Amino acid sequence: MAGIIYLDSNATTAVDPAVRAAMLPFLGEHFGNPSSPYTLARGSAAALVRAREQVARLIDATPEEIIFTSCGTESNNAALRAMADADPRRRHLVLSRVEHASVLNYGKHLENNGFSVTWLEVDRSGQISLDALRAAVTDETAGVSVMAANNETGILLPIRDAASIAREHGALFHTDAVQAAGKVPVSARGWGVDFLSLSGHKFHAAKGVGVLYIRKGAPFSPCMIGGEQESGRRGGTENVASIAGMGVAAELGAKSLGVMAIQVRALRDHLEQAISHRIPDVFVVGRNAPRLPNTSLLLLGGVESEALLALLDMDGICCSSGSACASGAHEPSQVLAAMGLSGGVARAVLRVSLSRHSPVAEIDSAVAAIAGHVERLRARK
Ligand code: PLP
Asked: Phi and psi for 151 in degrees, rounded to 5?
């Protein structure tokens, strides 16, 4: 959109033109149901086969281990449900405190239904402690869920080590890799996870399409009970157009990892340096911690993020506060609260998240706008 500087790629990304082109035939003449037996449907069925292979390659899995879902939320719910259902003797789960709402709230739902949940705390930089995880997992633990990358801070969590701790106790392991895919290498096999979730719209595919990786041999009870689609693991006619597009997005995401690691990281680092140079009293969350190359969470002491975001919006700049705004009330984010940041500090945050489509030429004018508004908002106090 002309005049817009989009810096909120952890919220969603624009559909890549190649992804859109791959979707269009299935919104037109190739409308057959992939489960139908006749020629018209073959294109749809072939599109699913191809996309499954493309997604599998992105996350180092086999195509048989991939099922398509409606979103990251569904994938996370389905994984937690599968872990909870796997063994009636195991009624305990371990979930990190900084998970997305689709894990946190499903965990609370299970807690209300007879499961006990150990909520794994994080330190000031948003990192879990493997020792704490080791202490939490027991032979009664059904499953552990730790996200690969946090959506607000961009912090990367130690999935391979965490999965191995779960395995030592025979517990299943799920990782929400929604924010990691297409930004950093993801390896379901190398990490040794049982379940892994993705969401298409975070890596330049359409909204409303997701993936659940289910390790071959992992116990799985479907969440969507219906027909035999997805080898009986998820009922419902597949969203063929979005899935075909997501396959292309996965391929482009795998090819762009170098661009993310070098160009996008350099742009993010430039933005952080420029902001820190122009604005006094700025803190970059997790600056020296392992984190996504595209994400910057800034603490801008003395500024209400809501007011800052509204001013930036008037300039056509889209950023986020990383906080949940529930029914008009500005609630400090649960992630920041878990990191021990509360009150005014947690309400003075700005999340900037980039992608390979971010406008390099406009970053400096975005920095100037942010600096100008921060200065004026601070002066009003
Ligand atoms: N998990 C993480 C880490 C996310 O950031 C999001 C979306 O913001 C989701 C899950 C949910 O994905 P979806 O929007 O596809 O339901």
From this structure: -70, -30
Confidence band of 241 (pLDDT split at 50, 70, 90):
very high
Report, as residue numbers or ranges, the catalytic residues: 325
Residues 6+ apart with CB under 8 A from 69: 75, 78, 209, 210, 211, 212, 234
Tokens at 99, concatenated? 């998970």
Assign 330 a pLDDT band (cuts: 50, 70, 90). Answer: low
What is the dihedral sign for C-alpha 365, 260, 200, 171? negative
Q: Is 351 near ligand 1, meaning CB less than 6 Å away?
A: no
How large is the average pLDDT for residues 251-276?
98
Show the tokens assigned to 328. Answer: 């008009």
Which of 257, 201, 205, 208 has the alpha carbon at shortest distance from 21?
205
Closest C-alpha to ligand 1, atom 10: 72
In the block, tokens 């219906």 appear at: 226
89 Cα–ligand 1 center, Å: 30
Q: Is 175 in the pocket of ligand 1 (CB under 6 A)?
A: no
Distance 8 CA to ligand 1 centre (A): 13
Q: Is the CB of 210 under 6 A from ligand 1?
A: yes
H helices present in the chain, as ranges: 17-27, 39-59, 72-85, 101-111, 130-136, 159-168, 188-191, 229-232, 240-255, 257-259, 265-278, 305-314, 334-338, 343-347, 363-380
Distance from residue 40's CA to the centre of ligand 1 (Å): 34
Show the beta-strand stretches assigned E in 89-229. Answer: 92-96, 116-120, 141-145, 172-176, 195-199, 210-214
To test ligand 1's pocket by mutation, which of 73, 212, 242, 333 has the most ligand atoms within 8 angstroms of CB? 73
Nearest to 292 by CA among 196, 98, 124, 153: 153
Residues 23 and 206: beta-carbon distance below 8 Å: yes
Write out the two tokens for 298.
């800034």
The pLDDT-based confidence of 364 (bands split at 50, 70, 90) is very high
Model confidence at 328, in pLDDT bands (50, 70, 90)? very low
Which atom of ligand 1 is found nearest the CA of 149?
A: 3
Cα–Cα distance, 115 to 119 (Å, whole number): 12
- Ligand 1 centroid distance, CA of 372 (Å): 32
CA nearest to 7, candidates 367, 310, 257, 290? 367
